[in-house]
Each structure stands twice: as structure tokens, then as C-alpha cells.
What does this fold into?
Amino acid sequence: MTAGRILPLAFAGFIALGMPKAAEGVAWPSMADDLGQRLGALGWLVAVHIVGYFLASIANGEVSRRIGTGSALVVAGVTASVSLIGFAITPNWSLLLIATVFLGLAGGLIDAGINAHVALHQSARAMGLLHASFGLGATLAPLLMTWLITSYDDGWRWGFAVLAVVQFGVAAAFWVQRDRWQAPTGEQHGAHRSLEGTAPLLASFVLITGLETGTGTWAFTFLTEELEIATGRAGLYVTAFFGCFTAGRVLMGIIGDRLTPRSYLTIGAAASLIGTITLLWSPAEWVTAIGLVLTGLGVAPLFPVLMLVTPSIVGPERAHDVVGYELGAAVIGGALVPALIGILVDTVGTNVIPTVLVIVAVTQLVVVPGRASGRASEATVGRDA
It folds into this structure.
């Protein structure tokens, strides 16, 4: 089986990867009520999931070398399925926390393993569609969970049971094709050297994910509290941000290698900066909406393109390790920027939200496009999806 023929399974893995946490956001009020928890306890679930995801991401290279990428994906897929069963049957808060840790560990291995494989063997088209697949899963899961919660008693439990079945199906497919995933190259114990010279690359992922999650987390608050836009319209504008974010990755899949990695990164970083400046300006509601659309479209290709050029920047023998570290950096950015905004909102006010986003976007424009060196650009644009 060629690298191209394994792509449908990679896409299915990312659809399944995007589903659980998106579904959890819809299910949480019902879960909290049934388990006797405050709504604010969701923060603990997010925190322990991040810890598991981070640890698995940075360990990806070593795990893949020891047991092979295919076997690592099988273990992660089964772990995710069992964790989701734990979500479905949990009688108490403690079991839910344990299941969440293991779901994070599984997600980190799947994310890093598939990203590294596609970065090593595929094109910009494949990487764009891979990350669009994640967005598809994150879109479908809330719809499924909403339908089940409104249709059945304990609907949230049925929702996680369905997701467990989906994940088990993906794990079974991983098992059937476990020998088709190429194992990482390099020395058995060379992972500790993989951070050498990668600080700017890791910083780029902190900035990209920080801008993405900072905008997605705080845009609604800025629209409703600072600009006093009606709740319904504000919800539509935030939905447009996420929709354009996913559409941008689909567009990347369509354009493919017609643009170089440097072009993708420069155009994306510039568009997201223009979008955040437009949010800061916000002279009219329609202008604010355009700002969110531009930010979503701009940030969309940055993560997958930078992931794509990683093997050319650090060398294929270090790719599995560095991709894992990049995902760890992305987790840090995704937690740090929204948290920083939250602190500043409490001390300064909601008007600070777009200011922080502009600062992150300016830094991103300075740092990110430079990661696609000439060698990386030339090495990655010729592969077929």
C-alpha cells in the first residue's frame, strides 16, 4: 500500500480526533448536573486533558521508535475508545477525570503520529485536507450530541458511547493497516537532541495556536460585552470564524502545491494580522464580522503548512520527535493566550481582547513565515497527495 492509499485512514483518524472535546462542550451542562458538579468544573477536565495530550505528544518520537507508528496508533485508538466508554458509564467525577487523562494521552499520540507521517510522505494538499478533517469531526460531534441530548434521557452518555464505537472502528482500521505506517528513522535514543535549533519553530506553534484559540475563546465575549452586539448575531459571527477556519484548510487542500510553503505562511500570517486589526478598529458591526472572517481564513493554513515543512527543516530522522514537541508547544499556546486574555479582562476590561490578539498576530507575522526556509520550500512542494 502506498503512502497515498493510507490517506483515507489518516483523514478518518483526524475526524475521530476532532469529535470528543467538541461534543463535551455541548454535553457538559447535562454531565455536570448528573454528576453533581459546578459548571466551572469543566476547567479541570480541560486541564487534565491538556496534561495528557502534552505528555503523549512529546513522547511520540520515542514511542514510535520502540513499537512502530502503526502499533502506536492502534494502542492510542483503543485507549481513546475505552476512555470514551468511561465517559459514557462514569458514575462519578473521579472516573471521569481518569478517563479524560487517558483520552488526552491517546489524542496526543494520534495527533503527533499522523501529522508526522503526512509531513514526511505527503503534500500541502494532503496536509490541508487532514486538518480540515479535524474540523469536520469537531463540527459533526456537537450536532450528534445535541440531537441525542434533546431526544433521550441520559443522551450525553449515549453520545459518548457512539463516539467510542466510532473510535473503536478507527482503531480496528489502524490494526489492519498497522504495518503500512512507516516507522521513524534515526537513532534509538536520539530524541533528547531533537530540540536543538528548534526554538523558533516551537515558538511559531505557540503563536499560531494562541491566536487561533484566543480568538475562538474570547471573540463572543468581545462582541457581546464590549461592542454590545446581540447574542444571536454574535454567535453567527463566531460561527463564521470557525467556518472560515475550516474552509481555509479545505481551500489549502484544493490549491495544494500551487503555492509554496513560504507563500502560504506569509499570506496567512498577513491576513490574520489584518483581521485582528479590523477587530480592534471595529467601526461598524459588518466590519467586525469581516475581521473575524479574515482572521479565520488567515490562521487556517499556518499550522498544517508549518507541520508539513518540519521534516525539511529539522531532517526526516528527527521529524517524529519534533512534530511531537510542536504539538506540545501548540498545547501551551492554546492554553497560555486565552488564560492571559482572561487575566487582562479581569483587570483592564473586555476592550483589551483585540489588542492582545493584534500583538500575537504581529509577532506571528515576524516569526512564522521565516520558518519556511528556502530548503524547506523546495523540498516539500513536489510530492503528490
Summary: Residues 187-193, 374-385 have pLDDT under 50 and may be disordered. The CA atoms of residues 61 and 320 lie 5 Å apart.
